[in-house]
Design a protein that fits this description.
Radius of gyration: 13 Å
Number of helices: 0
Amino acid sequence: QVQLVESGGGLVQPGGSLRLSCAASGIVFRLYVMGWYRQAPGKQRELVAGITSAGMTNYADLVKGRFTISRDNAKNTVYLQMNHLRPEDPAVYYCHVVLSWGQGTQVTLSS
């Protein structure tokens, strides 16, 4: 059974940074594409970034140059470093692999 546990969300000032983590279990982590998605209230869930088993990455246009996805296969963990956070970034951020989703972690900007 695949389990994904996200952490690292929180309240941050505009322009600030956060690093999200997603710990995976129940899969041979190093073999799988991992993804980060986000969903803001009233909006559809959207892909933020993905990373292949070989470490190739892709990003949504809105986050290119600000967010970095990475993985540590020894720790079965994928990360999302988010810098220069903007008003459009607050959402619940979800980790994804195959057909499984984590519970999400909330990212909020302070006013």
